[in-house]
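Regression check, adenosine-5'-triphosphate case 280:
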Amino acid sequence: MSSTTSTEPAASGAAAGPLGQIAITGAVREYGKGGRRVTALGPIDLQVPAGEFIVLVGPSGCGKSTLLRLIAGFEPVSRGSVLVDGGPPVPGHSAGVVFQQPRLFPWQTVRGNVALALKYAGVSRSERDGQADALLARVGLHGTGDRRIWEISGGQQQRVAIARALAVPTSLLLMDEPFAALDALTRERLQEDVRQVSAESGRTTVFVTHSPDEAAYLESRIVVLSGRPGRIAADLRSDLPRTGIGADELRETPEFARLRAEVATAVKAEAATAERRDRG
Ligand SMILES: Nc1ncnc2c1ncn2[C@@H]1O[C@H](COP(=O)(O)OP(=O)(O)OP(=O)(O)O)[C@@H](O)[C@H]1O
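Current build output:
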């Protein structure tokens, strides 16, 4: 992906604290009412310094997406607090979010999809197309602005979704299994690119995945959640070499294999514990 753009994350309002910092304290999310109340997540305590890239993994249904929605401000906490840049997150403003499905507007062009996000971010009409093209170039889609959504591949659609998330003027990027529906080759290319985009933009990034391989490839801080209600079971950090080494070469190192196995073992152990508990 190209690093040439003038669209850098902007300050997200008057909130105090370093831009992109996430502070989660005793956060719990419950669903339902009365006797049917279910704790889906927590309590969670998690600090993510500004500019850090963390990967969230855990058994199915443990609350990974719920945690992301709390950080995005799409849902409130039932107890505890989630602060972004020192204040409560504001939905649509505190974070750029990429979902498993690109969720693009099919009646808009590729450029139009990104320009719409820029419109909501308050960018003037005269600047939108230029900034949209710069963001598209940044995610490897130079020259595709006039194409229709149905004319581009699934991988390219997900790149448009990333460009759209980068259009949100915040220092936080949240990604919820964004590559799960893509073929292996496209997925690997996008993994490489997302690491680069995140590093170039300096955004704090929280990336949810089911895949131990993806987790190990993407980052050195991997947070493993337990089975429901999701709590932090492990906060793994590795010193895997990540600069001056190609993706294939990295995947062939014994350190990478060890980290991938460590993540897989931790997730399997949490899933087994949750299963035993659910069976009573
Ligand atoms: N709106 C809701 N109402 C009731 N329960 C919900 C709601 N959203 C999520 N849940 C429950 O909360 C739990 C956590 O769901 P969540 O989707 O966050 O898990 P996840 O780890 O992202 O799952 P997966 O890996 O399968 O995508 C699940 O048991 C789910 O059924």
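Comparison notes: The pocket of adenosine-5'-triphosphate is lined by residues 31, 40, 58, 60-66, 210, 228 (CB under 6 Å). Helices lie at 64-72, 110-120, 125-138, 154-166, 184-201, 212-218, 247-251, 254-279. No diff flagged against the previous build.
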